Amino acid sequence: MFRRRFKLFRLFGFDVGIHISWLVVAVLVLISLAMGFFPQAYPNLSERTYWLMGAVAALLFFASIIFHEFCHSLVARRYGLPMRGITLFLLGGIAEMGEEPKRPKVELLTALAGPAASVALGFAFIGLGDLGEVAGWPLAVLGVLIYLGRINWLLAIFNMLPAFPLDGGRVLRAVLWSWKKDLRRSTRIASQIGSGFGLLLILLGILNLFMGSPIGGLWLVLIGLFLRGAAQASYQQVLVREVTEGKKVRDVIDRKPIQVAPSLSLRRFVDDYVLVHHIDRFPVVENGGGLLGCLDLQRVKMVPESRWDEETVGQLAGRCDPLYTIDLDADLVAALDRLRRGPFDRLLVVQDGRLEGVLDRHALERFITVRLNLTAS
Question: Model's pTM, two decimal places?
Answer without folding.
Answer: 0.74
